[in-house]
Amino acid sequence: MTINYLSGQKNNIYMERYGFSSPTNPWDVIKFSSNAKIHLDSYLSVFNISGLPEEFYHNSLLSSEEDNNFADGAVIAAARTLPTWSDGDIPPVPSTERRSARELQENCYRLLLEFPTTLEQDQQILDSNPDASRTREAAIKYRLHRKLFLKKVIQALELYQERILF
C-alpha cells in the first residue's frame, strides 16, 4: 500500500514536513549545472516509461524482469529532472546523446563529491549510532537518500548509453 502525502513534492519537502525522505521518491530533483541534454523520448523508451511528465509510470508489461527491478521511482524522477530535449521528428544523434549522458553523469559525480561524507560513511554512522537522536538520524538518512538517488541517476544514464536504439 502506498500513501501519497504530498503529490509532486521533492524529498526536502518530506523532510521539512514529516522528518523522512525516500531514495525512490519519483518527484526528487537534481539541479544540473551543465548545458547537456538527452533526448526525452529515447530515455523513456529505454526504461519503458509511459505517460505525460506529471504522470510518468513504468510500464512493466513491456519490460523484462531485470528492467522491472531497476526501474523504480528514482528512474522516473530522473526522467523528470534530467535536462532533456524533444524536437518532433528530428532523431537524436547517438554520439551526441552518449556525450551528453556522460556529461550529465560527470555532473552527478561532482554533486556526490560535494557531500562531506561518502555513502558508505553515512551508512556506517547510522549503523554505529543506534541511540542517535531522531533529528540526527533523519538528517543522515536524507543525505544518504540524496546520494542513493544520484547514484541511481548515474546508473540509469549508463544503461541509457548502452541501450540507445536508433
UniProtKB/TrEMBL annotation:
GO terms for cellular component: chloroplast thylakoid; plastid-encoded plastid RNA polymerase complex. GO terms for biological process: chloroplast organization; methylation; plastid transcription; thylakoid membrane organization. The keyword Transferase applies. Residues 41-147 form the Rubisco LSMT substrate-binding domain. It comes from the Eukaryota. Keywords: Methyltransferase, S-adenosyl-L-methionine, Transferase. Pfam families: Rubis-subs-bind (PF09273). One of its GO terms (molecular function) is protein-lysine N-methyltransferase activity. This is Rubisco LSMT substrate-binding domain-containing protein. It comes from Ensete ventricosum.
